[in-house]
Amino acid sequence: MGMGESRDIVIPASEDPESMSVDERRELILLLEAARTRLEQYFADTLGVFDESKDYDVLGFPSTVAFLKHQCRMSGARAKRSTLLARAARKFQATFSSWKHNQISSDEAHLLFQMAERMPDKYPDAEPVLLEIVGDSYDETRRVLDYWRQTVDKPGILVDEQIQMNRRRLDVSRKANGMVEGE
Q: Which residue of 86, 94, 115, 145 could cross-link 47, Cys pair, CB 3.0 to 4.6 Å?
């Protein structure tokens, strides 16, 4: 965030959600999501500068992850994810800018940054094109990125294994009679 840009993150004060109408709750959810997204972008940008400047060293920590774990009481996994996101946001400015200007969602930005991490030699050249063709939803963007990854990773060994791991899931639901069903 440069000088002169607004740093205000507005979290709307409201009455009890139970007393709201459906439209009011819908509007509140949209406002809260916009605020959460803006906060995540600002956190990634600030943490990226913190990491790049090695501020953690001045504060007596061996790494940004250690700082987040001890000072912010984050789990190690979340601290690592946050640090990787912040580094990717600093390195891939076009992707960060698209996210910051709401051209892509937070989830799509995470997908693109993960792709950049997995294919660091291919992503920088493809970044502008990928940002032009990302889908209108998370699922569509994931399919576009899977297809792109398959086209640039000719051997396919890494791709097939990663795609299979990413698509593994177990959906569990409870039936009306109380039984649990999985698929």
A: 86
